[in-house]
Amino acid sequence: MNRVTLIRLAATLALCLIFGLGTRRLKLIPTRFQSLIEMGLDLVRVNIAQEILGKKDGSRFLALLTTIFFVVLFFNLTSVIPGFQLAGTSVIGVPLILAAVSYLAFIYAGLRNNAIGFTRNSLFPPGVPWPLYIIVTPIEIVSTFILRPVTLVLRLLMNMIVGHLLLVLFFSGTTFLFLEGPGLLKILGVGTFVFGFAFTLMEILVGVLQAYIFCLLTAVYIQLAVADDH
């Protein structure tokens, strides 16, 4: 049990409370809080699940995609909350688990839809001359079954680590210049504070975008697995 684990538990508790309270007493004419919850759910349902997978497959995988989006979002935004100031996704454990879930959903969707066709077309893409499979098949194995989950992990992890380091740099510099900077150097603390505030806003934007991208790529991988040519 360490700081990042406590942050993850707090983010999970906040996520459960918000959706529990927001959906406990649904009304035909929604309150502002209910409207906010519905907007978030519609973002995943309409713009990701149905847009990428269609209504049928979108409904099948909606719960998974919704969970992935909001878990990544809430864990990312802890990086800008005073007292936390560290993203729950800035340590590799959670990105690794989420990438594994995304990868298993991709494999499950392909095998469930057409096991033989999915396996054959993943390893031996149609339209390629047979002699070239000696080169193409190893590339497909690496790109499809190894690089996809690895890139999901690294994209999320590195973005949140870099954001955290930038915020630490600017606000540590602000504290040092204001408290210990000699003479006119204290004025530079204003600049580092402004940059720190600007990067805080950028960190919020990056946190939202990374949640959207992670969820979107999961939907795209599932769509590739259930595509007709598989």
From TrEMBL:
Transmembrane segments: 6-23, 61-81, 87-109, 156-179, 184-202, 208-227
SUPFAM superfamilies: F1F0 ATP synthase subunit A
Domain of life: Bacteria
Main localization of the protein described in the UniProt heading: membrane
Species the sequence originates in: Frondihabitans peucedani
Pfam families documented for this protein: ATP-synt_A
Assigned keywords, A-Z: ATP synthesis, Cell membrane, CF(0), Hydrogen ion transport, Ion transport, Membrane, Transmembrane, Transmembrane helix, Transport
HAMAP family: ATP_synth_a_bact
Subcellular location: Cell membrane; Membrane
Keyword Transferase set for record: no
Gene3D superfamilies to which the protein is assigned, alphabetical: ATP synthase, F0 complex, subunit A (1.20.120.220)
Function: Key component of the proton channel; it plays a direct role in the translocation of protons across the membrane.
Gene (UniProt): atpB_2
Membrane topology, as annotated: Multi-pass membrane protein
UniProt similarity note: Belongs to the ATPase A chain family.
Annotated InterPro entries: ATP_synth_F0_asu (IPR000568), ATP_synth_F0_asu_bact/mt (IPR045083), F0_ATP_A_sf (IPR035908)
Keyword Transcription regulation assigned: no
Designated name of the protein: ATP synthase subunit a
